[in-house]
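Protein modeling request. Please complete all fields; requests missing the sequence field cannot be processed.
Requester role: graduate student
Desired output: 3D structure, token encoding
Chains: 1
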Amino acid sequence: MTEKTGSTLPRRQLGRYLTEWRTRAGLTQAKAAGLLEMGATSLQRLEKGQNSRIKTRDIRAACELYGTPDDLTEALVGLAQQAAAKNWWHQYGDLIPKDFDVYVGLEAAATKLISYQPDLVPGLLQTADYDRALVSQIWPDDTAAEWDRRVQIKMQRQHIVNRRTQPVTLDVVVGEAALRRVAGGRGVMATQLRHLADMSTRENIELRVLPFEAGFPSGVSMPPFVILDFGTAVTDAATEPAVVFLEGVVGNLYVEKAEDVASFIRSYDRISDAALDAVSSRNLLRNIAREHDRER
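Delivered output (296 residues):
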């Protein structure tokens, strides 16, 4: 796809949410444009994330018309106010409410996820017990009921991998450290690793392990990252540019500048080439699971 002026990740996400809520409200694009007193073409460009200048009053008016919750309205207004930068640093609580997860919306829209996770099991492949062990440490002051709620959200996210119709494709390299670091106890780890081995047999999942002995294939210690691919159109052009996601403690970085994305892809290719093949990875997962069982 030829990039349009102003087509940035925050604006495309804004467009997705506006389209979703307009549809929920039972309004056609033409009907909504008329009620909002704007041209149908303007609303179409807004929903496609192609407007270079967005008026926050238009976003508030659309949210009121569609009946969006107040917290979501503020999040969408925050998205509208983001700079038109190709690499976007989203600081938690900065314009966009802290509990509004931009990444989850992107994840749901992607057709393929390419990920390197050196120390943790990838979220879409975590068991509930493994995730609960992490959640209880991230939010130690929360109640058990709140931990369960957070775990349930993670489990719901995994539907994109498990659904029968057009499941997302996962291409993942997991570092050996992720298999040996204990979260939730040895029993939890044994079950988690067997789950990884089982999931790796699915047609839409390619999972390999980067063993300790492989060293540093990129010459540096790479952080965990996810490359989100949104597929191609009938013309074989990308429907929208790929995005690299890097999670942080106080905020997240979204990278979509083409040369920067290409750099991450090259790094992933080197890591992937150094990893074990799928069968050897599966065998290692089951072997380490047995080690966890023996040490319980």
